[in-house]
């Protein structure tokens, strides 16, 4: 192998090792309303927003004010997803459906600006059969507040201000401090699917991908040099 090829290989290998050793950036946490589907009596993070999800009669929709970086870390509603208990006193009606709604305002540590979270609530919404989970929430927990991107910001007036604010620092969830209003995990968006806000999808980091790419280039350079010698 020529001196030039050895130098090239050394540089590419250094880049590969640097990329592989790069630590992923710390996921940014957000303070926001998460949206949950009470399937079979247990909570599952919703795969679409409340404005597009149209639950069947007997379903339970859950909302939890939480601080997290992604859906995997989001706190689920602490009340049971028990439709029979929630809607026991709401009779069925022809042409309508009944949806159990659980609203968990979170903990004092999750609150922003010194606010005190209200007590958790369970409600039974009786709404038209083609109505959405967002319609069920609006029927029992006004006033609701949305931002210009249809992200759910407040339920029953809580919180009074802010919308999916970034929490400044990994350990500041209880401090009430926020840095900006960038979008949080969007499961409570009125417009679409849930999306993790901070790298909680389990995919490879940018550093790892860069390292892999450098290793591929290094291997290609070695093959090219070997073919050149044989030629």
From TrEMBL:
Residues 1-27 form the signal peptide. The chain crosses the membrane at residues 206-224. Keywords: Membrane, Signal, Transmembrane, Transmembrane helix. Residues 175-194 have a biased composition (Low complexity). InterPro entries: GPS-CTERM, SCO2322-like. Residues 167-202 are annotated as: Disordered. The keyword Membrane applies. The keyword Transmembrane applies. This is Secreted protein. It comes from Streptomyces kasugaensis.
